[in-house]
Specification:
By secondary structure, the chain is an alpha+beta fold. It has 2 helices and 4 strands; from the N terminus they run βαβαββ. It has helices at residues 15-26, 42-52; strands at residues 3-8, 32-37, 56-63, 66-72. Strand 3 and strand 4 form a beta hairpin. Helix 1 crosses helix 2 (42-52).
Length: 74
Amino acid sequence: MSEYELNARRLLCPLPVIRTQNKIKELKTGDILTVICTDPGALNDVPAWCRINQHEILHSESSDGEIFIRIKVC
């Protein structure tokens, strides 16, 4: 298992989801991806995409205008 970070700051919908999708395609099952973004819609859109594609949301939070979403690749 490896950990990765995706900088999706200042990108608007649907780019945070698209960048997350593209990055996850490069990863292996069990890897952890932390997506950092500023688009408030990503707080709903990225977890919805993960549910559809059967990836696990480990944690999500918003702090100082940034959103952090930790995803386990399944």
